[in-house]
Amino acid sequence: MTTPAPPTSPARTKGGELRAKVARLLADRPTDALTIGDMTRQLGHSHGAVRNAALTLVRRGEADQSGTGQPEFRANAQTAAAAQTAVISPPGTHAPRVQAATARTTIPAAAAPRQTGPIRRAGGQLYHPRELADLPDVEALNRLRDADVPVLLYGPPGTGKTSLVEAAFPDLLTVAGDGDTTVGDLIGEYTQADSGGYVFQYGPLVTAMTEGRALLIDDATLISPKVLAALYPAMDGRRQIQVKAHKGETITAEPGYYVVAGHNPGVHGAVLTEALASRFSVQIQVGTDYDLALALRIDARVVRVARNLAHQVELGELGWAPQLRELLSYQKTEAVLGTQAALANLVGIAPVEDRDAVADAVSKVVGVKRIAPLTLGKQLPAPAVRQPPGSTVSAHRSRAR
């Protein structure tokens, strides 16, 4: 009896080649819904690499995805064609930096498909791409990911920084940063199990590294620099971290692992240190696209107010202007409570120090008298209680007894 030879590791493939393999596997099993684990076992590649390839097929419309916790993938009418050709350079391949460099020299930027239409984010909302370096922003971010160039997005809250990252990277993990964020929130910590013992629960940084996923550090500049220092070894040439709390374990990043951060310069306590800024080779300012707000059919008068206030902010005359988030909230409020209440709410959400200027701008453009913040008024009178027939007589008889 001969002992079977141990399975050999598959040769390293470029992102497009693995994507074609995944498409071929799905096309060969058209009635099956396959998980990442199913495909990993069949193809012999890492979980993270297969996941990235499958998600890219979905984003390109070349496969269908269902489920969220453990997503399943199926072939569609485009899958068989995707299995025939290994396209290396389009965004979303998430290849390691050496492969990405080869791809960039092989295929010119203009040859890649452009993602110009609305993109559905994980929560179901649509994201409308904007232009960045003569490319749709989602495509530009994917190319930067392919080249392993970390990106810092900065701008006022509500301008769509998080929405952009979610639209660009379906495999995204997010850390919501604040002053209380700890190293354990990034790397992991011991938690009590149902059995009463303690187990080490890996954090989003380790998960992103081991699964080759994108990681957004939102409001990164609110996190203590000492905490952020735990991230830096995973962003340089080492692409490793040491989990001291868990036996000194060394974690090495899989291909596809990528870090992007968000920074709100005007938020109290947000400090962009030199150490943090130096880790992000590309820094992109994100503002509100007021033309998009008009295209989304938000009241043109309110958009004009926001645009004028934003200009005053740029001149240093004001500290706040409504961004796209506030304009979308205005639109929803108006649909429910009416224009007057929506305008009052827009004034009320402005910072106290800027509220008078915002109220004046709204009154001037909309053509109404000065608007006060949305406020509860006097108590409404209680409705009269109607007594059922005969109740007075019954009550009188009861008292008589």
Secondary-structure class: alpha/beta
What does the average pLDDT come to?
A: 83
Binned, the helix content reads: 25-40%
Radius of gyration equals 27 Å
> Uncertain regions: pLDDT < 50 for 5+ in a row?
1-15, 86-113
Biggest pleated sheet: 5 strands, parallel
Distance between the termini: 105 Å
> What overall geometry do the principal axes of the alpha carbons give?
globular
- The largest sheet has its strands arranged as 9-12-15-8-16
Strand content: 5-15%
Oligomer: single chain
What is the number of strand segments? 16
Count of helical segments?
A: 17
Explain what this protein looks like in three dimensions.
The protein is of the alpha/beta class. The protein is built from 17 helices and 16 strands. It has helices spanning 15-28, 36-43, 47-59, 79-82, 97-106, 137-146, 161-168, 183-187, 204-211, 225-228, 274-277, 290-295, 300-314, 324-337, 339-348, 355-366, 391-400; strands at residues 34-35, 64-66, 72-74, 119-120, 126-127, 131-132, 135-136, 151-154, 173-176, 188-192, 198-202, 214-218, 240-243, 249-252, 258-263, 282-285. Strands 9-12-15-8-16 form a 5-stranded parallel sheet. Strands 1-3-2 form a 3-stranded antiparallel sheet. The protein is globular, with a radius of gyration of 27 Å.
